[in-house]
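The step that takes the researchers longest sounds almost clerical: writing a folded protein down as plain text. Below is the pair of lines this work produces for a single protein:

——
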Amino acid sequence: SDIGSQKDRVVTEEEWRQKWEMGNTRFHKEQGHPLLLKYLDVLLTGRSGLRIFFPLCGKAVEMKWLADMGHSVVGAEVSEQALKEFFAEQNLPYCEEPVPEISGAKKLQSTSGNISLYCCSIYDLSSSIVGKFDGFWDRGALVAVNPRDRQRYASLMISLMEKNSSYLLVTVSYDPNKHKGPPFYVPESEIKSLFG
């Protein structure tokens, strides 16, 4: 697919951490994303008590919202600051523990146990560490992943899916030659080739 000048663009994990440190996070939605509300029934399909994964979760307010509805939420994010801000802003007590399988990684978990956020590279995760999921809310992850890593990312997401899982994905459409990203342009044809 033609993604213009973006195909070789790389944003490092350190650059993402710096965005959080500098407060350069216009991508964060204080009120949650309206498309999740609109398509919530597509994600949940009438089911309750789901395990829902938030790849590159940042401090998404929807994590608490879905946990309050009785779902179990797991997120992954390289910025420890974003995760700590999430717990502080949502007034949620949490505990922190190392993730033995991943060097330097931490898991921040709400004391109620229904929100577990992994501070590490998403590519260090596997189903043996985080389990499998019934639902995915990919609001800004695929469009933030470096274009050259999309296949690796999609393969990881597929490996984390339960048989009847729902994957809710938000992308952006624009001329990739006019904006270097992120968010990156991901054409529909590529989404189909990545996820089938």
Observations:
- The mean pLDDT is 93.
- Residues 67 and 73 are 6 Å apart (CA to CA).
- The two ends are 15 Å apart (CA to CA).
